[in-house]
Amino acid sequence: MATRWGICSAGKISHDFTVALRTLAPENHKIVAVAARDLKHAEEFAKKHNIPRVYGSYDELAKDPDIDVVYIGTIHPYHLATGKLFMKSKKNVLIEKPLAMNLREVQELISAAQDNSVFLMEAIWTRFFPVTVELRRLLEQGEVGDVQMVRADLGAPLTHIPRLAERKLGGGALLDLGIYCLQFIFTVFNGERPESIQATGHCIDTGVDGTAVLVLKFSGNRLAICTCSITMMLTCDAVITGTKGTIKIPDHMWCPTSLEVNGKEMQFPLPEASMPLNFTNSTGLRYEAEEVRQCLLKGLKESPGMPWAHSSLIAEVLDEARRQLGVTYEQDNIQ
Ligand SMILES: NC(=O)c1ccc[n+]([C@@H]2O[C@H](COP(=O)([O-])OP(=O)(O)OC[C@H]3O[C@@H](n4cnc5c(N)ncnc54)[C@H](OP(=O)(O)O)[C@@H]3O)[C@@H](O)[C@H]2O)c1
């Protein structure tokens, strides 16, 4: 039976996710409905993507009985409220990254999933790319020996985009881009808690972090460096240094299609998109969608590839880095 998807919000990433869903077998993934705050906006989206049911509010989508899972593509400050709304209506949810604005909100979402006995996953799509599957295999096989150092960089000049620059809209490099570097580090170190976190960087006029550099120290003198920026173009790659060699993920480390292990390159091409996309390599969103289907078929409430513990750990590190940089959101003042 097909997994029946509802799409919450008709913005840029919802467009790309919908296109990516259509690269999967229609007998496995069916898009049933879309909702946006403005009915006209939702209708335009539905027409473009040939989606049968349309709602002008998220509440109506939550009441639709024929939906298995809702993809939440709203901007970060609305992830908590929309996530809770759908979970209370017993809908499984895939929520865009970051799962929420801070650790307190992440914990609230996890509690809502537990209370309502539904599936919840943070949409860290990178985790389900074939490159990441191969990376995990290489690490487990000890292809580069014991990992000593991880470096991950992601940045581009993006301060002209309101949701990235405005504090009220959840702006800042850490929450939008640094999260990809951290999730990579925690993939390699298997969700291990760092012994220490040191953050430095600078803020832009709006008070959110423009550039941040984090140094994480793990047990046994293992280190990780994460650099993220919305003010400058970075190399957007990642390197793992082990006692026996090196793995490199070239540019597009957040949506990778190639990997180099001890100088040998491997390619993992993505399927073509049926219409123009807003973001790089977005047909790769198909892998997280398939992960959700597989988890639902198995009756799981969380994904082994992106478990709640990893979402909590990432949020905890992001909170600590923001504390050191002096970046706060209104959500941080709620107890
Ligand atoms: N996985 C990825 O590669 C990837 C890429 C880009 C973004 N993202 C994540 O996806 C989320 C959305 O990013 P986006 O670029 O798609 O954003 P966007 O197009 O600017 O906005 C997405 C939706 O959020 C709602 N929204 C926007 N501004 C709002 C406001 N001021 N008040 C209330 N709701 C508002 C709207 O929903 P309605 O349509 O209902 O009005 C809008 O369509 C972010 O959390 C981001 O981190 C992920």
From TrEMBL:
Extent of the signal sequence: none
GFO/IDH/MocA-like oxidoreductase domain residues: 134-247
GO molecular function: D-xylose 1-dehydrogenase (NADP+) activity; nucleotide binding; trans-1,2-dihydrobenzene-1,2-diol dehydrogenase activity
Presence of keyword Oxidoreductase: yes
Matches recorded under InterPro entries: Gfo/Idh/MocA-like_OxRdtase_N, Gfo/Idh/MocA_domain, GFO_IDH_MocA-like_dom, NAD(P)-bd_dom_sf
Enzymatic class: oxidoreductase
Catalytic activity, EC: 1.1.1.179, 1.3.1.20
Catalyzed reactions: (1R,2R)-1,2-dihydrobenzene-1,2-diol + NADP(+) = catechol + NADPH + H(+); D-xylose + NADP(+) = D-xylono-1,5-lactone + NADPH + H(+)
UniProt xrefs under Gene3D superfamilies: Dihydrodipicolinate Reductase, domain 2, NAD(P)-binding Rossmann-like Domain
Coiled-coil positions: none
Keywords: Oxidoreductase
Gfo/Idh/MocA-like oxidoreductase N-terminal domain: residues covered: 4-121
Family classification: Belongs to the Gfo/Idh/MocA family.
Record's protein name: Trans-1,2-dihydrobenzene-1,2-diol dehydrogenase
Organism of this sequence: Gymnodraco acuticeps (Antarctic dragonfish)
Lineage: Eukaryota, Metazoa, Chordata, Craniata, Vertebrata
Gene this protein is translated from: LOC117538392
